[in-house]
Amino acid sequence: MRIRSDVRRLFRLGLRRPELARGEVDDEITFHIDARIEQLVALGLSRDEARAEAMRRFGDVAQARASIGASAARRAARLAFRDRVAALGDDLRYVVRSLASSRAFTLTVVATFALAIGANAAMFGIIDRLLVRGPEHIVAPERVKRLYISLSDEIHGQETAPSFGYVSYAFLRDQSRTLDGAAAYTHGYEYTLGSGPDAQRIKVAHVSWDLFPLLGVGPQLGRFFSAQEDHPPDGQRVLVLDESYWKRRFGGDRAVLGHTVLLDGQAYTIVGVAPSGFTGVELRRTDAWAPISLLHPTKDWPTAWNVEYLQVIARLKPGITPEVASAEATLLHRANYTGKSRIMPSAQLAFRPISSGRSGKESLEASVSRWLTGVSIIVLVIACANITNLLLARSTRRRREIAVRIAMGITRARLMRLLLTESILLALLGSACGLALAYWGGALIRTMLLPNVDWPSSPVNGRVLLVALSLATVTGVVVGAVPALQTRRLDLTGSLKSGSHQAGTQRSRLRSWLVFAQSALSVILLIGAGLFVRSLLKVRSIDLGFRPDRVLSAQIAWLRMVNPTPEESERERTRRRGVYIRALDRLRATPGVHAAALAVGTPFGNSFSPDVWVPGYDSIPDLGGGGPYVSAVTDGYLDATEIRLLEGRAFTPGDRAGSERVTIVNEPMATALWPGQSPLGKCLQVFTKTLPCARVVGVVGQVRRFALREKPAIQLYVPFGQETGIGGTVLLVRTSGDPTDFIPLLRRVLRDVDPNVPYTFVNTMQEDIDPLVRPWRMGAILFGILGGLALAIAAIGLYSVIAYMVAQRMQEFGVRLALGATTRRILSLVISRGMFVVLTGLVVGQFVALLSANYLTPLLFETSTRDPLTFGAAALMLVTVAILACLLPAFRATRVDPVIALRAD
Amino acid sequence: MAVDSIALMRGTLDALVLKTLTWGPMHGFEITTWIEQHSGGRLDVEDSALYQALRRLEERELIEAEWGITDNNRKARYYRITSGGRAHLRAETSRWLKYAETVNDILTVATKA
Predict the structure, then answer these.
(1) How confident is the model at residue A886 (pLDDT cuts 50, 70, 90)?
(2) Is the CB of A57 less than 8 angstroms away from the CB of B33?
(3) Which one of A14, A169, A201, B7 has the lowest number of neighbouring Cβ atoms within 10 Å?
(4) Of the given ranges (A215-224, A506-515, B54-63), which has the lowest mean pLDDT?
(5) Is the pLDDT of residue A1 over 50?
(6) What ipTM score was computed for the predicted complex, to two decimals?
(7) Which chain A residue has the Cα nearest residue B44?
(8) If we measure between CA atoms, which residue out of A780, A792, A855, A779 comes closest to residue A519?
């Protein structure tokens, strides 16, 4: 009889085990020899003769047994494997069929998985780049550290920064015995590459020649620059291109090597191309690399101690701890220091990880990302709780079906395998959708919130894929395990006899616990989101002293002059000034321009602090914020920036080069220098002591210059044209509409005024402020999204539990209604059941949030981690959503027809 | 036992077994007997070689096996040819005939006296 393989599996027939197959071989040989003996006996031989002949004819029995047995065993093993694969295929087919038949369930579970796994995959992609992997192409990155200097004085307290002069890099490189070399770099230079219509603005990093060997990176093409090309007093004009810029601008042409390009009008030779994805020790996009010796911040830059424009990195020798290297660096600094500063000789130098931010601590972006990763893991936990919940409800509904299957002889192991197959399949489907979400979401997070990072091309790479798949498998097993284990406790006869809607109380208790956990976790996330939103609102409402919105700032990138004579530079200065002034006049006559002005020294732009003398004072007091800061501005400056005029007058067109020297001071200066008096009419000297003194004509409010939160500083303004020794004119335009619409017009005006104007750098003032607000915006948006997600998932969970409870107790509600219970009574019965679970979760969640929110303090902006408004809002939100989730099934409970309910089953 | 029995060439036995099974499912002893009868006793098949051939064919899925009951009420392993086996037999037969024809042609060329 031939038995179909699936039937055989079902009844565990014809076990294909290798040992069994060997036994069969013996049976077969014995049968053959017996049959042969019978045949020979029938031909007239004696039994003994027949046996001898049969054996002879058979040949070597032992050898035959061995080789036939081996063959049989091989075949059995192969068939067993095939059976297992076929069984998996059967399981999958069965699972797919059953999932397809309950589409709403499948969709809910897959969507929940997709959101949770997608959020985790997206966050992993970001944190992997920011914190785990760091910049690419660095050999043994754990030994590469950045140098920080800590200075302390009585006024400012301790300040830490990664800023050094060339001289610090040089002594470390030459004298250290704990380092395998040091290198210096500085980012953020922008040059105009080329000229004419296809001129481009590019970002250039100046680096010391030894940065490349220190990191252990080799060029993709050509070479990096050499020690001879980067040597004080002047570097060679050589350029190493970034790989992606090389592809974009030069189409990946290998012939660019040796070519000359113009940077700000000066010829540079391209000597090499850096490998793909190389960004130095930071993650910022860089288009080209040039020698550091080309930068001349001061005349005596190779030995100057008072100019700090470089970041220094070093490679520690193997086995050297950062502490040892830091101690040596501090000693070397003190031994080498020859400057005049009072506090520099006692400075502390320290090596910190290269992922550290400017203050030497982890950057705010990185901390926020770390938190968000934690949050997305919580969302995943909530999602798992919820899916477990849904699977439990489903397995309860299918109890009778499962009992029938067990009665039919399916093993419990097989049943568990089926349930796990189902949950893993759901998780895999979810993670596939989740990866699509991570692709879009990751790209969005990158461009919106971390635009300065040079990201690899796709938000979903191999590592993200791997993480998503592992998450899917693990969560699939976890959520499937609970219902699968519960089948062990299934009471067979009871399930077969009773209707499908009667389920164990144990199970519904477990489901309530899951909803409780979800409520608690969601409320924690909602509180976190709320704290970030409050911080963001606080940051937004900060009074900067001016209004950056709708202000464009434009600066012409003038070509550098080659060895000009003093007369030539003076003539050029006058010419440039003329271009700006004519542009200003044109713009003021343009409709849509609310106000326009020229300024040297702007908030969040350039700052200058020349010498200031005030009669009666030996020195100008420092109010904590540095300074005094001086800006030279035209009339209209206060209108363009909306800085408040408190007393006196603003500058007029009459205040200009050659007119009476006047000045406007800020309020902190007025109160600090002339307490109790009006500063108007007072006299002070700016720039040099030989100049006549400037009369104070006005007082304005204080303006933030560098940071959202800073100590007050003395600021004063002189008329544009009366300044000496400071330069870098900026054109400010306040528009009445969206300022970005105005950019093309602005460029056209500048070109009309002077057709030879090179590249003009235009941005909105808001763009200078946004990076400072970004960490809070990132926190508020992403925390908000994840918190909302958690809430939605928890609501689904609650709904399913309540709906299920209502379905189970239909009969009871029917009886209650028949006995005269009011609709209200039924509603409150159902809702109170759900709300009890949610409110318990709410209280516990609030409590946990209260205890743990302290860890969030460093990330918040002037917001208490116990902010009652936030806690209240989170609670209100959860309660509202929970009531809505209960209402729907509750109404269903009130509409039970008692007759039908009682007749069922 | 024929005196001038021919030693079987490797691979030929497989074809003979397949051919035998085209008459219907048989157990190992029936196959031996069938080959002996139809070769007029001229082919000397060692029994162990036959069983190895059967397992070989089974592994290649040219035949399949099932335990069954003989007329004498004994348990025996019955073999049946599969569709793959039939195809294989056809190919083998035509190959063999061509080979035999060629050898025959060469050997029967009239030699110079």
Answers:
(1) confident
(2) no
(3) B7
(4) A506-515
(5) no
(6) 0.86
(7) A57
(8) A792
pTM assigned to the model: 0.70
Helix pair angle (A399-407, A364-397), 10° resolution: 60
So what's the pLDDT on residue A272?
94
CB contact under 8 A, B51 and A68: yes
Q: Residue B47 is nearest to which of A27, A34, A58, comparing CB atoms?
A: A58
What angle is formed at CA A249 by the lines to CA A244 and CA A251, rounded to 5 degrees?
Answer: 80
How many C-beta neighbours within 10 Å does residue A805 have? 18
Per-residue pLDDT at A621: 79
Asked whether the predicted pLDDT for residue A745 surpasses 50, the reply is yes
Helix (H) or strand (E) holding A187, with range, is: strand A179-193
CB pairs under 8 A between A and B: 60
Q: Under a CB-based contact definition with an 8 Å cutoff, are residues A769 and A605 in contact?
A: no
> Among all residues of chain A, which has the CA nearest to that of B47?
A58
Residues of A whose CB is below 8 A from B52: 64, 67-68, 71
Answer yes or no: do A71 and B56 touch at CB < 8 A: yes
Instruction: Nearest chain B residue to A71 by CA: give it.
Output: B55
The token pair that represents A539 in the structure block:
């940051």
> pLDDT tens-digit profile of A327-368?
999 999 999 998 877 778 888 999 998 887 777 777 777 777
When pLDDT is averaged across residues A310-325 and rounded to a whole number, the result is: 93
Considering only alpha carbons, which residue of chain A is nearest residue B71?
Answer: A35
Three-state DSSP state, A623? coil
Is pLDDT of B7 > 80? no
**CA separation for the pair A479, A854 (Å, rounded):** 32
- Which region among A321-325, A434-438, A805-809, A875-879 has the lowest average model confidence (pLDDT)? A805-809
The share of chain A scoring above pLDDT 70, in percent, equals 93
Query: Is residue B80 predicted with pLDDT exceeding 70?
Result: yes
Chain B residues in contact with chain A using a Cβ-Cβ cutoff of 8 Å = 27-29, 32-33, 46-49, 51-52, 55-56, 58-59, 66-68, 74-77
Q: Pick from A237, A240, A243, A210: which is nearest to A226 by CA?
A: A210
Enumerate the residues of chain A whose CB falls inside 8 A of the CB of residue B32. 32
User: Is-contact A380 A474, C-beta < 8 A?
Assistant: no
pLDDT in tens, A377-434: 888 888 888 888 888 888 777 777 778 877 887 777 778 888 888 899 999 999 999 9
Q: Are A418 and A91 within 8 A, CB to CB?
A: yes
Exposure string over B75-103, b if 16+ CB within 10 A, otherwise e? ebbbbebbeebeebbeebeeeeeeeeeee
Query: What is the distance between the terminal CA atoms of chain B, rounded to a whole angstrom?
Result: 37
Chain A residue with CA closest to B77: the answer is A28
Q: Is A150 helix (H, G, I), strand (E, B) or coil?
A: strand
Q: Is the pLDDT of residue A277 over 80?
A: yes
pLDDT the model gives residue A828: 87
- Chain B residue numbers with beta carbons less than 8 Å from the beta carbon of A67 are 52
> Cβ neighbours of residue A400 under 8 Å, at least 6 residues apart?
A495, A496, A499, A500
Are A534 and A870 in contact, with CB atoms under 8 Å apart? yes
Interface test with B, best of A24, A30, A45, A58 (most B CBs within 10 A): A58
Both structure tokens of A327? 């101690």
Helix/strand/coil for A179:
strand
Per residue in A451-479, is it b (16+ CB within 10 Å) or e — as a string?
A: eebbbeeebbeeebeebbbebbeebbebb
pLDDT digits 0-9 by tens, A244-264? 899 988 998 999 999 999 887
- The answer to whether residues A314 and A387 touch, using CB atoms and an 8 Å cutoff, is no
Q: CB-based contacts of B60: which residues, under 8 Å, 6+ apart?
A: B84
Q: Compute the radius of gyration of chain B from its Cα atoms.
A: 16
Contact A35 B46 (CB under 8 A): no
Specify whether the CB–CB gap between A533 and A860 falls below 8 A: no
